TrEMBL record:
SMART domains tied to this protein: PDZ
PDZ domain mapped to chain residues: 120-148
Names of the cofactor(s): Zn(2+)
Name of this chain's protein: Regulator of sigma E protease
Subcellular localization, as worded in the UniProt entry: Membrane
Residues in the signal sequence: none
An MF annotation (GO) of this entry: metalloendopeptidase activity
GO cellular component, one term: membrane
Taxonomic placement: Bacteria, Bacillati, Bacillota, Clostridia, Peptostreptococcales
Family from the record: Belongs to the peptidase M50B family.
UniProt xrefs under Pfam families: Peptidase_M50
PROSITE patterns per record: PDZ
Length: 332
């Protein structure tokens, strides 16, 4: 039950934020919005305010914004009759809200559990740093081998490939240089010195770390998608609804912070996936608008609508295939 409820909540929030972006920009540009709904399926509740019907549907898996994106209309306030720049901002707003959600949940996580900074928190016994006596808890690591290390990720990135290290540190306001010889990690090929980071917890620092985390994860998702035509990345598989439900359930059992972190990751994935220039996705619609701007003439909307319809059918077929692979993995 916890898996089911968590799955509904996580993807409900992710899709809701996405659609809220489209809705807010459409309203800002005075584009006509017929309906803004939470969930899908039969209506449980609806109330018309102005020209927009606000409703709650039976299946709480996200939501949708109903505009006339694919039908030709004489209405000057229809989506298709809006200037290209307004349509672009409406389409971009959905994925952007997915990144906003990711930053928000990562900020909550890092503010709640703390985040590592570029300072020594603990020396591990019988490891190079402790044996040398050169480092002390509280030392700020400013540079390693001449490379600035403003974050803990930078510290570990500089230690990992280098057996010989010169660290520029700050201790009680004094700048010092220490020499360390790293040891090879027995579990892989990285070098380590045996230090754990100092952790801090404040809103501003958590926000900065959340932005960095969102950027780093976005790059990893883009790299994964870019590798798909060549067969994908080794050891990384695409998971469908069943696989994602399992991940959500496992995260939920690990605590609220684990679930929030996974929500951020899934939100980033949805945002980037929707920006792909494929029919029926936001990226596909953006592509057609950019072609309009380049050619300086309107594309036949009925033909474009047929392309998006065909693209939607292909996406559904792909989802069914991924679901099939998900189910096969359950029995392996």
């Amino acid at each position: 039950m916890i898996t089911f409820i968590s799955y509904i909540v996580v993807f409900g929030i992710i899709v809701f934020f996405h659609e809220l972006g489209h809705f807010a920009l459409a309203k800002l540009h005075k584009i006509r919005v017929f309906e803004f709904a939470l969930g899908f399926g039969p209506k449980l509740f609806s109330k018309k305010i102005g020209e927009t019907d606000y409703g709650i549907r039976a299946f709480p898996l996200g939501g949708f914004v109903k505009m006339d994106e694919d039908t030709v209309s004489e209405d000057p306030r229809s989506f298709l009759n809006a200037p290209a720049w307004k349509r672009l901002t409406v389409l971009f707003a959905g994925p952007i809200m997915n990144f906003v959600l990711a930053i928000l949940v990562f900020t909550i996580v890092m503010w709640g559990i703390g985040f590592p900074v570029n300072a020594v928190g603990e020396l591990i016994p019988d490891m190079p740093a402790a044996q040398s006596g050169e480092l002390m808890p509280g030392d700020n690591i400013l540079e390693i081998n001449g490379v600035p290390t403003p974050t803990w990720n930078d510290v570990t990135a500089q230690i990992a490939p280098n057996p010989q290290l010169e660290m520029k540190i700050e201790r009680d306001g004094e700048i010092l240089y220490v020499q360390l010889e790293a040891a090879r990690d027995p579990e892989d090929t990285r070098y380590v010195v045996g230090i754990r980071p100092l952790t801090r917890s404040n809103a501003s620092g958590a926000f900065v770390m959340a932005v960095q985390q969102t950027w780093m994860m976005s790059r990893e998702v883009v790299s994964f998608l870019a590798a798909l035509p060549a067969g994908g990345q080794e050891g990384v598989e695409i998971v469908g609804p069943v696989g994602m439900a399992g991940m959500v359930g496992e995260a939920a059992r690990g605590g609220i912070y684990n679930l929030l972190a996974l929500t951020g990751l899934f939100s980033i994935n949805l945002g980037i996936f929707n920006l792909l220039p494929l029919p029926a996705l936001d990226g596909g619609r953006i592509f057609f608008i950019l072609v309009e701007l380049i050619l300086r003439k309107k594309i036949d909307k009925e033909k474009e609508g047929m392309v998006h319809l065909a693209g939607f059918a292909l996406l559904m077929a792909l989802m069914l295939f991924v679901l099939y692979k998900d189910i096969l993995r359950l029995f392996q």
